[in-house]
Amino acid sequence: MHLYDRGFAELEPASLYAILRLRTDIFVVEQACAYPELDGRDTEPATRHLWFGPAEDATDVRAYLRILAEPDGRARIGRVCTARPARGAGLSRRLVAAALSRIGERACVLDAQSHLVGFYRSFGFTAVGAEYLEDGIAHIPMHRQ
Fold first, then answer.
1. pLDDT at 29
2. How many CA atoms lie within 13 A of 117 on its CB side?
3. For residue 77, what are the CA distances in angstroms to 56, 57, 91?
4. Against a cut of 0.85, is the pTM above it?
5. What is the pLDDT of residues 100-129, one digit of tens each?
6. Which residues of the chain form beta strands (DSSP E)?
7. Which residues contact 121 (CB under 8 A, 6 or more apart)?
8. Which of 76, 89, 85 is CA-nearest to residue 44?
9. pLDDT band at 35, cuts 50/70/90?
10. 63-68 contact pairs (CB < 8 A, 24+)
11. How many CA atoms does the CB half-sphere of 69 hold within 13 Å?
12. Residue whose C-alpha is closest to residue 77's, from 55, 101, 52, 54
């Protein structure tokens, strides 16, 4: 698997379409959440889109996440997802590790689905707030120094 890392302006239209399709398939359809998946943050100049796919085909998105720049200087990891056929192969773990490598020493936040808190703890994240519901799914805010 090849790691792709692009800003919005660097995305080829077919790759962008594949990313948005995967995110919609998982977060809207599979998780049955009717919400505005396109939130306007994908196009921000500092946003990075990371995904794994075959080296010869950047449109075959197997696992994806984005890194946002928060106004206070922290990084935010979000939209972490893996295509159903690619699950269980460790791509999400490799992707989060790659994102944290890119983020470096900056503080980082994310909102973990509650069943994934242990996964994010394995990367040094700690819970920093109470569980809350977002679109009917339990989440925990997490932080990593």
1. 84
2. 13
3. 26, 24, 15
4. yes
5. 999 999 999 999 999 999 999 999 999 999
6. 2-7, 48-53, 63-69, 75-82, 108-113, 126-127, 132-134, 137-144
7. none
8. 76
9. confident
10. 63/91, 63/92, 63/94, 63/95, 64/19, 64/22, 64/23, 64/95, 65/95, 65/96, 65/99, 66/41, 66/42, 67/99, 67/102, 67/103, 68/41, 68/44
11. 11
12. 101
pLDDT band for 134, please (50, 70, 90 cuts).
confident
In terms of residues, how long is the chain? Answer: 145
- Is the distance from CB of 82 to CB of 97 less than 8 angstroms? no
In single-letter form, the type of residue at position 132 comes to Y
Does residue 111 contact residue 134 with C-beta atoms inside 8 Å? yes
Residue 60: pLDDT band with limits 50, 70, 90: very high
Which two structure tokens, joined as six digits, stand for 115?
A: 């069943």
For the chain, the average pLDDT equals 94
AA identity, residue 82 = T
Strand-pairing partners, residue 127, are: 142
Cβ neighbours of residue 88 closer than 8 Å, sequence gap 6 or more: none
Amino acid at 97: A
